Amino acid sequence: MNGGSLGIRSGSYSSLDKKQQQNDVLLPIQTPSTTKTKPYSKMFKDKEKLFHWACKFAGRKRVRMFLLLAISAAVFVWVFYVGKDEDQENHNGHKVNDSLPLNSSETPPMNEVQTVGIVNRVYFPIDVERTEVRVMPPPPPSYFLGYTLPPGHPCNSFTLPPPPADKKRTGPRPCPVCYIPMEDAIALMPKVPSFSPVVKDLTYVYEENLNKETEFGGSDFGGYPTLKQRDDSYDIRESMNPHCGFVKGRKPGHGTGFDIDDNDLLHMEQCRGVVVASAIFGAFDVIQQPKNISEYSKRTICFYMFADEETEADLKANGGLDETRKIGVWRIVVVRNLPYTDGRRNGKIPKLLTHRLFPNARFSLWIDGKLELVVDPYQILERFLWRTNATFAISRHYKRFDVFDEAEANKAAGKYDNASIDFQVDFYKKEGLTPYSEAKLPIKSDVPEGCVIIREHVPITNLFSCLWFNEVDRFTSRDQISFSTVRDKIAAKTGWMVNMFLDCERRNFVVQQYHKEVLAYLAQMAPPVINPPPPPTSSRSFVR
Q: The TOD1/MUCI70 glycosyltransferase-like domain covers which part of the protein (predicted)?
């Protein structure tokens, strides 16, 4: 490390030698002349006479004492001046430590000292010593830039073991995931937001009087954007104003469709950290209580379950819903004036537009109503967002990677009418959609398993969620079909990527339960309970 990098002026000899070597020129060495010494000798004689004169009148001891005091005063003044400069540098200089401690929730030290061996050159005798040099660092970053776990941490060398050889079970199954302890995950929660490429300012379309002049698709809830407006929404700019649901109101949940009580909206606005959201419409599922959740998470994380009036009635009758509006950790938010007749499409509103319902939240974890959460949300966020420096994470489908295959599977299973699926896929094909292949790497799949979404609420992820919802609103409600089109259009303009992790990793932290109708069917199909016959009334026994 040279003097220039430390803010220290380098010695004149080293810099001169470098210039000579670079130019291949030997400069003449100037030696002090030995002639014309009379002025110096005369000055020396005058000082010697003055010294003898002072010694004659003041005495030698007093002169020595005077010189000693003068030297002491000079040393004191120098020490005071240097100490003052160091204190000022210590006050102004801040060094950011990007290596965060894993076993402490405290803020990492902001002031650090770099020790460098230098020689203090002064004009009076002093011993050579090693001196602390404070380096003026750059200002702290305004964005979260990620981190790496310490060397030797088990998660750094963790690899998935081979799947168990069980011929009787060939379907999807969970696999191990390397989480860090919950306390460490909380300590690593970013203090600042992640970087949002290109887009910085995001507002949303509000139309008091809807303009329904569009080519096809749209709704009163999401608006009726034209194909030109759709194309414009993929022209990513620093400031954007896309359609994003709730177009008939200035505030989501107020006269927009998907209406929510003011008291619930107030609580939702106060959620400023992490939110876990889910929904049950049509009394379709049974509420699953999360497991393995720390008390700290129960106090600091917002758990919200959205439900329609039918589900509310069912919960009051069978689920224990009372005036507290809570069942376990979940706060039940009843939604009225649902904009769609299809319950699955209504479920896409809290799933994809979480950032609009929770405008002050920093992170969100969406899980479908049929899923049971079995890992602490802070550990999930650390593993799939913070550690990978991602802002959006979703699992891949365990079996299918190609949109064309996904569309055929949806038609075969009767998930949506075939004509609408074919129309959507043909539209994307004309825009350039191709079957998935290894040529798309590092993209590992075009088909997500969309029952879990992990995201940070920054402008780029909010825009992605809006545009994904717009595709669901315009075409079919099968969001797996439209996912890759939206992702790839945004990535082409910004370089933004989605963390698509393995489906077996998703199955590690959520457990899928049966829908309510399936549970009722299984209960009916269960064999009847056969009670043992009553004991004989006679005391006589028979032996055969």
A: 202-515
Taking Cα atoms as reference points, which of 424, 524, 408, 542 lies closest to residue 475?
Answer: 424
Mean pLDDT of the chain, nearest integer: 80
Ramachandran angles phi, psi of 542, nearest 5°: -120, 135
Report whether 82 contacts 70 (CB < 8 A).
no
Burial class (CB in 10 A: 0-12, 13-18, 19+), 81: exposed
- Longest CA–CA separation in the chain, Å: 148
DSSP symbol at 4: G
CA 94 to centroid of chain Cα atoms: 25
Structure tokens at 264: 């619930």
What string of H, E and C letters represents the secondary structure of 283-303? CCCCCCCCCCCCHHHHHHEEE
Q: How far apart are CA 507 and CA 393, in angstroms?
A: 14
Q: What is the pLDDT of residues 487-527, one digit of tens each?
A: 999 999 999 999 999 999 999 999 998 766 666 656 666 66
Phi-psi group of 251: left, alpha or beta (phi > 0 → left; psi -120 to 50 → alpha; rest → beta): beta
- Main-chain dihedrals φ then ψ at residue 418, nearest 5 degrees: -60, -35
Burial of 328 (0-12, 13-18, 19+ CB in 10 A): middle
* Phi, psi (rounded to 5 degrees) for 396: -80, 155
pLDDT for residue 209: 87
pLDDT given at position 213: 86
Which amino acid is it at 423?
F
Nearest-angstrom CA–CA distance, 501 and 381: 13
> Which two three-digit tokens encode residue 427?
């539209």
Q: Which of 245, 252, 312, 303 is nearest to 277 (CA)?
A: 303
For residue range 79-124, what is the model confidence (pLDDT) as tens digits? 555 444 444 444 443 333 333 333 333 333 333 333 233 233 233 3
CA distance 485 to 479: 11
Strand 201-202 vs strand 239-240: parallel, antiparallel, or unpaired? Answer: parallel
Helix (H) or strand (E) holding 455: strand 448-456
pTM: 0.72
Short-list 305, 355, 352, CA closest to 332: 305
* Residue 289: closest CA among 344, 369, 343, 347: 369
First to last CA, the chain: 101
Structure tokens at 291: 């497991």
Please, are residues 113 and 134 in contact by the beta-carbon 8 Å criterion?
yes
Q: Give the span between the Cα atoms of 466 and 343, in whole angstroms.
A: 19
Measure CA 351 to chain center: 18
Burial of 358 from C-beta contacts in 10 A (0-12 / 13-18 / 19+): buried
Higher pLDDT, 60 or 171: 171
Position 537 scores a pLDDT of: 53
Q: What is the DSSP string of 427-443?
A: HHHHHT-----GGGTT-
Residue 501: what pLDDT?
97
Q: What's the average model confidence in pLDDT over 34-41? A: 44
Separation CA 326–CA 191 (nearest Å): 30
User: Which of 181-195, 265-279, 439-453, 503-517 shows the lowest per-residue confidence on average (mean pLDDT)?
Assistant: 503-517
